[in-house]
Amino acid sequence: MWELNPEYKRERLLLALSIIGIFWGIPLLLFLYVFLEMPSFKRLENPAQDLASVAYSADGKILGTFYLTTDRVRIPANEIPPIVKKALIAVEDRRFYEHNGIDPMGIIGALFSSAIGKRRGGSTITQQLARNLYDEVGIERTLWRKLKEMIVAIYLEYRYGKEEILTMYLNTVPFGGVTYGIQAASRYYFGKNAKELTLPEAALLIGLLRGPTYYSPYKHPQRALARRNLVLELMEEAGFISQKELQAARKAPLGVGSAPYTASQSSGLAPYFREHLRQWLLRWARQKGYDLYRDGLQIYTTIDSRLQAHAESAVVAHMSSFQKIFEKELNTQPSPWEEDSLLLPRAIRRSERYLAARNAGLSEEEIHKQFHRRVPMRVFTWEPPGYKDTIMTPLDSIIYYLRFLEAGLVSIDPHTGEIKAWVGGINHTFFKYDHVVQSKRQVGSTFKPFVYTAAMDNGYSPCYEELNVPVEIPVQVDGRDTVWSPRNADREIGGKVSLKQALALSLNIITARLIRALGPQVVIQYARQMGIQSELEPVYALGLGVCDLNVLELTSAYGCFPTLGIWREPIFVREIRDRRGNIIETFTAASRRALSEKTAYLMVEMLRWVVIAGTAGELKWRFGLYDLDIGGKTGTTQQHADGWFVGFTPDLVTGIWVGTADRAVHFSSLVYGQGARMALPIWGIYMKAAYQNKSLGFKKRAIKPPPGFVPPICEPSASPEESIPTALEEYFK
């Protein structure tokens, strides 16, 4: 038997090893090369992408998103309509449910198309998701990228179910510009949530994926329409829609409007609230180690989108018409800047243009020239479309805006402390200053309930009668002895008046007598217990509201009345979750007993009387709120600069302020320059809409007294019976 030559054996072995190296070694090396550039297993399990944080209303609506460069919002699978998923599968991956991440038939089809000169993609939805999720996969058209893409796709199919893959894809795919994901795209193109998309709208959005710029419905509507209809035809071909549905959808317009629904800071619902929320969230995120703009936080607020919409509409309805009355009065008397030589310099120095010029190092002379140079401007107007383009000097612009009445409104559920509506001004685009929390204004007679609360809690009765004649109270002003002798806003009535009637008519003399008897410090103590935090000077004039408060703290304090004495800290966030839906923190209102139940209910009775037969009497007849249990108080400040109304029902306490940016610009008399004219109508319009909205579920019920407590029934006043109606007639003349 013959043996192989050892050298020949060696050659055969080398040949075998070479063959093995060619067929196994080179692929292995290629695999290792690709694997080294693959995402880590940790990254595969936790794909890191910048996600916009989203603020939701209490009733599940998106109020706004917070992001730096990318509007990318994730939504759960059940909020993506099946029609969107079907459109995607029909266009991108007809065999999606049949493959395991790689579609051999698709690859063969793509190779055949390339061979005959036609470019056609062979990537599955899962492969495209791999590119969207992981930067390491890359986007270049190379073999290495394709291999990485396939490996990641196989892993994703192993790790996730088909529905999860579809959801991840639709949450991450770009729809043009900074818009990523089906939710952001739905808002951008149609101004609605993804779950509300119709068949034609879904087809249009899926059609955009081929080229968001090329098929833009704003830049190229005909291309977009043709692409949308092609998607519809592919859906019908795949059996996802019927021929009848196809024909109906093809006839539908694009439906995108004349411009995108841009989510600017000033657009949409509750812009003042969203800005306050953003500032608060930045501080919260810094303390907790999160990035508001990248970590995809889910913020669930207390704002009710329905109440918010009613509140904003009420402000617009009243202010747009009331401004005309104010303009008419301003035009029939000397201008405020003629009477007050410091008004314009004061306004100029507060303006953003002046501050920017000072920060840029300009001299006063240079700034003066700048303020007298005519330039093109876009300014606010109540007439549609809400602005006008004009040419004026910056000084003219300041004078123009000084003439506008502004407003602030906040609405709170007193039983939970949750803020339900927040309107910080008349238009956030042109008036950024938030009159709910940033602005503190003199509150006038809306402070009087704190004086009467102290009185009720210290042995007084609503039926107690006090002399309604001027009183002289010794005080010190700037170290000098003087006398404080307040007068009533309308006229002296004389005789005696019950405290119940005195509060209803907002009689200054009675309030002055009460605070003299109680002492300012006692009144301050009760105001503090009820939630007032701002500085309160212990002077007798405090009883008439000479202090400056913001709308939020004053409204919150009135919440002690319908809750029968419980004060709850106002809150505007219920909970915050991370991008995966895990709760990070929940929020509940701190609370305390501020008043006894009996004292609080006595004040409910007295503040009801303000609405029944006092300065807020028109609420019942003018706005049709006859069967609504309402308590509240109007407020008017010195020189009619500020108008207030804070009112409550069993469900809500709502405070409203109306005035101008500078107190020197105001009404000349009480005819219109009072809380009952300036602020109260907003409350009436708002409450009427809120209680007519069946979806809110408010029931018309009454605030009940504590068990076993029977409030006193007052006998007729010692003053002439006709004095009260006479006073009312004079007040509303």
Please describe what this structure looks like:
Helix content is 43%, strand content 13%. It has 28 helices and 22 strands. With 733 residues, it is an alpha+beta fold. Strand 12 (473-477) and strand 13 (480-484) form a beta hairpin. It has four domains: 1-34; 70-263, Penicillin binding protein transpeptidase fold, CATH 1.10.3810.10; 341-403, no CATH class; 406-574 and 589-673 and 701-731, 3-Layer(aba) Sandwich (Beta-lactamase), CATH 3.40.710. The strands form eight sheets. Strands 2-1-5-17-18 form a five-stranded mixed β-sheet, with no helix packed on it. A five-stranded antiparallel β-sheet has the order 9-8-22-21-20, with helices on both faces.
The low-pLDDT segments are 40-44, 113-118, 135-140, 718-733
Structural class: alpha+beta
Query: Which homologous superfamily in CATH is the superfamily of the largest domain?
Result: DD-peptidase/beta-lactamase superfamily
CATH topology annotation of the largest domain: Beta-lactamase
| Tally of helical segments | 28
Shape type: elongated
| Largest sheet descriptor | 5 strands, mixed
Mean pLDDT, to the nearest integer, reads 85
The name of the CATH architecture of the largest domain is 3-Layer(aba) Sandwich
Number of strands: 22
How many separate domains make up the residues?
Answer: 4
The percent range for helix content is: 40-55%
What's the short story on this structure?
It is built from 28 helices and 22 strands.
Ordered list of secondary-structure elements with their pairings:
Layout: H1 6-36, H2 41-45, E1 53-56, E2 62-66, E3 71-72, H3 82-92, H4 104-115, H5 125-133, H6 143-159, H7 162-172, E4 179-180, H8 182-190, H9 199-208, H10 221-237, H11 243-250, H12 271-288, E5 298-301, H13 305-330, H14 336-339, H15 343-350, H16 352-359, H17 364-371, E6 375-380, E7 387-392, H18 394-402, E8 405-412, E9 419-423, E10 441-442, H19 448-457, E11 465-467, E12 473-477, E13 480-484, E14 496-498, H20 499-504, H21 508-518, H22 520-529, E15 548-549, H23 551-558, E16 566-568, E17 573-577, E18 583-586, E19 591-593, H24 597-613, H25 618-622, E20 631-636, E21 642-648, E22 653-660, H26 675-678, H27 680-692, H28 723-731
Parallel strand pairs: 1-5, 3-4
Antiparallel strand pairs: 1-2, 5-17, 6-7, 8-9, 8-22, 10-15, 11-14, 12-13, 16-19, 17-18, 20-21, 21-22
